Structure formats: C-alpha cells, structure tokens
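Reviewer 2 asked us to include a model.

Predict the structure of this chain.
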Amino acid sequence: MTEYEKGIREISREKYPETATLQAVVGVGPITALAYVLTLEDPKRFWKSRDVGPFLGLVPKRDQSGDTDKQLSITKAGNFALRRLLVGCAQYILGAFGPECELREFGLKLAERGGKNAKKRAVVAVARKLAVVLHRLWLDEASYDPFYQLSRKQLSHAV
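Predicted model (structure tokens):
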C-alpha cells in the first residue's frame, strides 16, 4: 500500500466516517467513497436518491422530435472523476470476480438483451443504480444488504 493510499484511508476514517458505510458495498473502495462524499457534500440536498444519477451525468440524453424519442449517450453533466470511479466500480461488479448481489443481477439482465452496446449500457445503468444505493445508505446510515429487494419481498410474503 502506498503512502497516498494510507493517507486517503486515514482521512476517510478520521474526517469522513460515513465513508465506512459506503465501502460496505463490494467494489466501492476508499477513494470512490471519499470522492462520493466530497462531491455530494450533503446527502439531504437531494429530495430523492434517484436525483443523484442525473446530477452525476449518468442518464441518457434525449432527442425528441415529433413522434420519435431517441435515446442517446449519457449526458456527462456532472463530476467527471466521480462518474469515472462509479463506472469502474460497476465494471468490477459486472466482471468475472464481481459479488453476487442485486446490482450484478440487474446489470447482467440488461447485458443479456443483446445489441451492439448492451454491455456498455449495463455498466452505466449499474453505475447509476450504485450512486442511488450509496446515497440511500449515506442518508439513512443503514447497513448494506446485497439482496435488499429479495429480503423485502420475503418479509412481505411472511406477513
């Protein structure tokens, strides 16, 4: 581990303890967690966690004219560095050594749809969803459950 990595871990632990919550998501390291916290600054600045994706430029552009509604590449409107880190995390989650979790299943289903750019779209979609999950974890100070939706369904069926 280099001196820079040690410094980032120390800063994260001492000044930004909320990064520990974000690092519970497999694939999110100290650099990504710290960049996320420093870029968003305050988790309460967004009404909904879903608003984080457009803030970071992880949503597709639109070309609407008449009856056509084309979906183009992502807007890239937000912070370049954080968007790049989140895409890297998403590539790890979807990669060969990625953990079994709902984010991975979601991305693999999108990638299966086929098409020329299916894998790229899936990576960006997982990055967007990861940004939303990180915001929710930070806001609620909750622990990460990799199968949150599945456990929620099982609880509702048990009642």
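The CA atoms of residues 49 and 135 lie 6 Å apart. Strands lie at 60-65, 68-74. We have added this to the supplementary material.
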